[in-house]
C-alpha cells in the first residue's frame, strides 16, 4: 500500500451526513463490460472474459482483528447483522439486459447497524476486481452507500479510479458512543483478493490506533 494516502473526501457521523443510522446498503452498479484477451492467447480464446467486481464488508474488533467477513463466499455474519444479497459475476447475469441504468444494484450488502455485536468497533467496506482487471476499464459503474430511505452519502465513479487499481478500500465505519462515524477512504490496495485486502485494511486500522498512555 502507498504510504501517502489521499485525504479523505468525506468524514462525519452518519446522522451528520443525514443518514438513517439503522440500515445501510453498500452497493455496486456497473454496466456489463467485455474484456478482450491479450497476447498470443487472443487468437485461440473465443469466449471473451468480462469484468467481475465483488464487494465485502469486514467486521473488526477494538484491536482491529478480523471478527467476521461478509462476501461472496460467506453471505452473512454470525450475528446475521450484515447480509450479502447475492453475487453478480459480470454485471449482467441478473437479467438479459445490462442493468446499469436499471433501479437495481447488481450487488448489495445490507448492514443492520443496531444488530452488529457490541465488540465490533470498525467496519471496512472493500471492493475487488475478481479477475484483476482495472476498475477503470468498466464502461460505466459506481459504488455507493445509502440508507433504507434511498439517501446516498457517497458515490465512487469506477471510471475515475487509478488505471492500475483492482482492489479498493472504499470506506471505514467506526463505532462512536451513540452513532457510527463514516470516512470515505477511496484508497487503492496492493492485495489481489478480498481476503488479503481485509488483512491489509486491518493493518492500516491498527496503525491509526492511539498509543496507550504510559508506554
**Shape verdict:** globular
Percent helix range: under 10%
Give average pLDDT, whole number. Answer: 85
Instruction: Identify the strand order in the major beta sheet.
Output: 1-13-12-9-5-6
Strand/helix succession: EEEEEEEEEEEEEH
Strand content: 35-45%
Report on the biggest sheet.
6 strands, antiparallel
Distance between the termini: 28 Å
Count of DSSP strands: 13
The low-confidence parts are 1-8, 43-47, 93-99
Rg over alpha carbons? 18 Å
What's the number of helices? 1
| Helix-strand category | mainly beta
Summarize the structure.
With 215 residues, the chain is mainly β.
Give the helix/strand layout.
Blueprint: E1 10-13, E2 23-30, E3 34-35, E4 49-50, E5 53-60, E6 66-70, E7 82-84, E8 107-112, E9 122-129, E10 141-147, E11 152-157, E12 167-175, E13 180-188, H1 194-207
Antiparallel strand pairs: 1-13, 2-8, 2-10, 3-4, 5-6, 5-9, 7-8, 9-12, 10-11, 12-13
Describe this structure in words.
By secondary structure, the protein is mostly beta strands. Helices cover 7% and strands 36% of the residues. The protein has a six-stranded antiparallel beta sheet with strand order 1-13-12-9-5-6, with helices on one face. A five-stranded antiparallel beta sheet has the order 7-8-2-10-11, with no helix packed on it. It is globular. The model is unreliable at 1-8, 43-47 and 93-99 (pLDDT under 50).
